[in-house]
Specification:
Elements: H1 8-23, H2 25-32, H3 38-60, H4 69-90, H5 96-103, H6 106-118, H7 124-143, H8 157-176, H9 182-203, H10 206-212, H11 216-244, H12 247-250, H13 256-267, H14 274-290
């Protein structure tokens, strides 16, 4: 296995880059949903990313250790495929800022799932952090602005579920793929998930939309940027970050994501209220405490 090393500066630069990309991804999803259904956008996003990874998969094929195939499969399905669908469905009813804030619970579930399934040991401050952060998420879901929540709080649980899958995937990388080249992890996992998603795209009515909707190419452009920057590049850097630090440190990208998503939401005039702000602060406080 390869030794993965990196400097603190490299780790922070990668973290900031990922935060900026993922923080703006919710806005790009909302633009994609202007023409496409949630399934169309999710399958298009994964298909574009898988095609982008295909040349690397072919080039690196002989270096792939297939004894890790279960871990690659878990990373592909739980770290990319299912969350892409859940976030897309959620944003048919939620504003991008609310989705971004709820998605920032990833570090909390990374810690919790790490303890339950990967034998991580909690500190008292980390337990407090998980509780505080989850209280913030519950406040937003139950008491947040109804207009921002689309009038249906059930949709607000979908980003939370997606972050649980992200958390399991991140812990899998740290526990079983720590020494594997991050490009190999990305390429193999996306080939796994791309195989079923591409036929779904073909059967989803995507091409009819491209032919009949005058705004379709604009939406396609946003999804393409989301796929190539937010999925293709960011996933490589994220796996690399886990390898040179830890799954918990890498998940601190969640500090930046809700802030950037909220700023974009404010610029777009998305509805917010006092409860939303309190929930955001509680989540960020919980993430901070979980780092200690």
């Amino acid at each position: 296995m390869e030794t993965q090393q990196g400097t603190p500066l490299q780790a922070w630069l990668i973290l900031i880059f990922i935060g900026l990309i993922w923080g703006s991804s919710y806005f790009m999803m909302s633009k994609g949903l202007e023409s496409f259904t949630a399934i169309q956008m999710a399958s298009l996003r994964i298909s574009i990313s898988s095609i982008a990874f295909l040349p690397f998969f072919i080039y690196l094929y002989k270096k792939i250790d297939w004894s890790h195939w279960k871990s690659y499969f878990i990373v592909g399905v739980l770290g990319s495929g299912v969350p892409a669908i859940l976030f897309a469905v959620a944003q048919t009813q939620l504003t991008s800022s609310v989705t971004g804030v709820l998605g920032s619970t990833t570090p909390l579930f990374t810690l919790l799932i790490g303890m339950l399934f990967f034998q991580l040991v909690f500190k008292k401050t980390q337990i407090i952090g998980v509780v505080v952060g989850l209280i913030g998420a519950i406040l937003i879901i139950l008491l947040g602005n109804k207009e921002a929540l689309g009038g249906n709080i059930l949709y607000a649980t979908l980003p939370i579920l997606a972050t649980c899958f992200y958390a399991y995937s991140s812990n899998t990388v740290q526990a079983h793929l720590k020494g594997v080249n991050s490009l190999i992890i990305s390429a193999v996992s996306f080939i796994f998930i791309g195989i079923p998603m591409f036929p779904i795209l073909l059967q989803s009515g995507f091409f009819e939309v491209m032919q009949t909707d005058p705004n379709a190419w604009n939406s396609f452009a946003y999804v393409a940027v989301l796929s190539l920057a937010g999925t293709f590049l960011a996933s490589i850097f994220y796996f690399r970050l886990i390898q040179i630090t830890s799954a918990v440190f890498a998940s601190t990208v969640a500090y930046m994501i809700p802030i950037i998503a909220t700023i974009i939401g404010i610029i777009r005039g998305e509805p917010m209220n006092f409860v939303y702000v309190i929930g955001l602060l509680l989540i960020l406080s919980g993430v901070y405490l979980s780092r200690n």
